[in-house]
TrEMBL record:
PANTHER family: BIFUNCTIONAL ALBAFLAVENONE MONOOXYGENASE_TERPENE SYNTHASE, CYTOCHROME P450 FAMILY 4
Gene Ontology terms, MF aspect: heme binding; iron ion binding; monooxygenase activity; oxidoreductase activity, acting on paired donors, with incorporation or reduction of molecular oxygen
Protein name: Cytochrome P450
Listed InterPro entries: Cyt_P450 (IPR001128), Cyt_P450_CS (IPR017972), Cyt_P450_E_grp-I (IPR002401), Cyt_P450_sf (IPR036396), Cytochrome_P450_Monoox (IPR050196)
PROSITE patterns: CYTOCHROME_P450 (PS00086)
Species of provenance: Paenibacillus aquistagni
Length: 466
């Protein structure tokens, strides 16, 4: 160990609760309030486990975010939390992707994928987003109560199939959606009980993984022949470096699957919370409606969503600040290192937290209140506002997601008023999925809004005072 590290390690021990298992149980049971508690009790850096050999370190605030997210050789990307088997078709789907790549390989693949997310390219996706959202708005005409989160998940999934894979055939869309759904349903069980027998979750997951690979393989073949395709997958199939390097078929499959899974659920959760927070804040909702009311044609809508600093954009940013869909991120130390003057041994898991950073009173006034208007007057640094993370692994789809959310919200809020049912329990989990759904009454937009009282953890996370 270098001398300076040894000196620091004897001088400092990271504060934190002693009992690892109990603390981590509390974390898994109530991840958001647990982070608030340890931050309140111990400060910006908290160790869980033995003082001189912590198993987990929680790091809060912009300075530590910067240290962790920029030094990607020291604080490496980690697959430690991913317990899926590696050496079969499941591994090919879950491990071959940007978010688990390191160093030069990550840089090269990111360079090859970047053009698919360029803002010029994103314009090609607008028509699909508009059409899919209008389709769901039409379907709702005959319904009065929906589970908003489920509906948003179905919508973002359909948008992903169109924009990522260019699928148009309804049967293909349904089939791929069904297999991905079944795979993600069994995957938790595979990680808990990785036993392979016929009809076990592992057996089922592997079967789904093989079917998905077959579908994606035939799509690759198809995309190689398509000259004018404008979807993300086509752009990846055609991408190559200056020296001619292109992505192999198995790399393409890994990237495509992850884009699909990473992209739609996060966006669905962000959309659900934005609608929820707006409907609970009548003044903010009125301002959004005033802004979008005059938009008539598709062209009006696309021109509006391309502009920045609209009140709708501020509302989305504020919702991502308060309830970021990736509320926490993890890295692992490659070797012994320093973090905020503390010695951290190699192989320690380090959690950074958009959720806590976004609620620091020194960065955001009235941090627990939903105040979209604050975005007219603040410009936080890349480490103070991190719903899409920062540094080399920052979300590649952030601009796509913002664009998608603006289009979806414009169409749905113009047409429908959403009212949450009285005393509904609303509790987000670590990835901001409302664990018991989000039942909403929908009715034609009549420009009259009222806050409704709800139950659940959300009341500890949002300051409702006006
Ligand atoms: C509101 C929606 C979204 C949120 C909040 C979000 C959030 C994030 C965050 C926090 C990370 C970095 C994780 C880390 O630090 O380890 C990330 C990475 C990533 N996201 Fe997103 N994301 C969203 C939408 C999307 C969409 C629409 C796509 C693609 C279509 C996408 C694709 C990716 C990929 C490929 C990575 C890995 C990047 C890399 O490691 O270089 N995301 N996202």
């Amino acid at each position: 160990m270098p001398d300076d590290l040894a000196a620091n390690s004897t001088n400092f021990t990271i504060p934190g609760p002693q009992r690892t298992t109990l603390s981590m149980l509390r974390f898994y049971r109530a991840p958001l309030t647990f982070q608030q508690c340890i931050h309140h009790d111990y400060g910006n850096i908290v160790a869980i486990g033995q003082r001189n050999r912590p198993r987990y370190v929680f790091a809060f605030g912009p300075e530590l975010n910067r240290e962790i997210l920029t030094s990607s050789d020291t604080f490496e990307i980690s697959s430690a939390l991913l317990k899926v088997p590696k050496h079969n078709e499941l591994g090919q789907l879950f491990y071959h992707n940007l978010s688990l790549m390191k160093g030069e390989q990550h840089k090269q693949h990111r360079r090859l994928m970047q053009p698919a997310f360029h803002h010029q390219q994103i314009r090609y996706y607008e028509a699909s987003i508009l059409n899919e959202t209008k389709h769901i708005a039409k379907e709702w005409e005959h319904r009065s109560i929906i589970d908003l989160n489920l509906e948003m998940k179905n919508l973002t999934q359909r948008i992903a199939m169109k924009t990522l894979f260019g699928l148009t055939d309804e049967k293909q869309i349904e089939a791929l959606g069904k297999h991905v759904h079944q795979l993600t349903q069994s995957i938790l069980w595979v990680t808990l009980v990785p036993i392979y027998f016929p009809f076990t979750p592992y057996w089922r997951a592997l079967r789904q993984a093989r079917i998905i690979q077959t579908i994606l393989n035939s799509l690759i073949e198809h995309k190689r022949k398509e000259v004018k395709a404008t979807d993300v997958f086509a752009s990846l199939v055609q991408a190559h470096d200056e020296d001619g390097t292109a992505l192999t078929d198995s790399e393409l499959i890994g990237h495509a699957f992850t884009l699909f899974v990473a992209g739609h659920e996060t966006t669905a959760n962000a959309l659900s919370w934005t609608i929820f927070l707006l409907q609970q804040h009548p003044q903010a909702m009125t301002r959004v409606i005033e802004e979008i009311d005059g938009l008539q044609t598709d062209e009006d809508i696309t021109t509006y969503v391309r502009s920045t600093s609209t009140f709708l954009e501020h509302a989305i940013k504020e919702s991502l600040r308060l309830l970021p869909p990736a509320s926490i991120g993890v890295r692992v130390t490659h070797s012994a290192c320093q973090l905020s003057n503390y010695h951290i041994p190699a192989n320690t898991q380090i959690f950074y937290s958009p959720f806590i950073t976004h609620r620091l009173p020194e960065l955001y006034e009235d941090p627990h209140r939903f105040k979209p208007e604050r975005w007219g007057g603040i410009k936080p640094s890349p480490y103070e506002y991190i719903p899409f993370s920062a540094g080399p692994h920052m979300c590649i789809g952030w601009s796509f997601a913002m664009h998608e959310m603006k289009i979806v919200l414009t169409i749905l809020l113009k047409r429908y008023a959403f009212t949450i049912q009285q005393q509904t329990p609303i509790t987000p989990n670590l990835m901001m999925r409302p664990v018991k759904g989000m039942p909403m009454r929908i009715s034609p937009q009549r420009y009259s809004f009222k806050r409704v009282s709800v139950k659940g953890t959300i009341n500890q996370l949002i300051d409702w005072s006006t």
